[in-house]
Amino acid sequence: MRIGIFGAGGMAEALGGQWSGHEVMVAARDRAKAERISARVGTWEETARASEVILLAVPAGAVTEVLASAGESLAGKVLIDCTNAVGPGAVLTVPGQAERIAAAAPDAHVVKAFNLCHVDVWRMTPPVFGGRPLAVPLCGSPEAVEVVSGLVRDIGCTPLNAGGLDRARLMEATMAFTVGLWFDGHDAQACFPPLAA
Ligand SMILES: NC(=O)c1ccc[n+]([C@@H]2O[C@H](COP(=O)([O-])OP(=O)(O)OC[C@H]3O[C@@H](n4cnc5c(N)ncnc54)[C@H](OP(=O)(O)O)[C@@H]3O)[C@@H](O)[C@H]2O)c1
């Protein structure tokens, strides 16, 4: 698959490394950082045009500007939103971040994914805890979720179709809630019983 990555920070490097079996192209404002992830580097627009799927891995505050730079080349592409609009104290600063991204790139197919776990988890090969592969919830259209499901399996995780993009704000709130618990030293996973129970 032809994967574009917007950004060359931690999430871009972690997931870009996991997807090295694909054709990965990176767009970032720092070309040297982009080249550390892939030899294929382009502008936002070139990278979007060359890709089937694009991982948006820039800070929430930079999203609008970056998407505007990619422009119409985003049309028809699957756009993975891993961004977390979160401020000090694990508080959401933008409710409905994925829907805001969909409004800024109306012809792309936005899927919320990979926002729940710290970047170090996405570097694990594979992310397995207590013998159980990490489950990755995905919110978006069924067709776009299917595409991203393959990329989730590629990193050894289990994709979960969590519904349409209107449910992405629940994932964003879940991130803020669980991060708040983790920062306070609590085990967020312990709050939930196994399915059988
Ligand atoms: N880190 C985590 O544990 C984690 C986990 C899940 C989701 N996320 C989300 O994933 C996204 C990326 O996080 P990250 O940890 O990879 O961040 P990061 O390491 O700080 O990297 C951010 C990238 O975005 C670029 N950038 C920053 N401002 C920009 C602007 N105004 N225009 C264009 N590019 C800009 C940076 O460029 P420069 O290098 O030039 O500054 C860098 O390439 C964020 O939205 C974050 O909320 C992070």
Automatic annotation (TrEMBL):
Domain of life according to the entry: Bacteria
Oxidoreductase as a keyword of this entry, yes or no, is: yes
Record's signal peptide: none
GO MF annotation: an example:
oxidoreductase activity
List, for all copies, the residue spans of the domain called Pyrroline-5-carboxylate reductase catalytic N-terminal: 2-84
Q: Which residues cross the membrane?
A: none
InterPro entries per the record? NAD(P)-bd_dom_sf, P5C_Rdtase_cat_N, STEAP_metalloreductase
- Which keywords does the record carry? Oxidoreductase
* UniProt xrefs under PANTHER family: DUDULIN-RELATED, REDUCTASE
Q: What is this protein called?
A: Putative dinucleotide-binding enzyme
**Source organism (scientific name):** Amycolatopsis umgeniensis
At the highest ranks, the source species' classification is: Bacteria, Bacillati, Actinomycetota, Actinomycetes, Pseudonocardiales
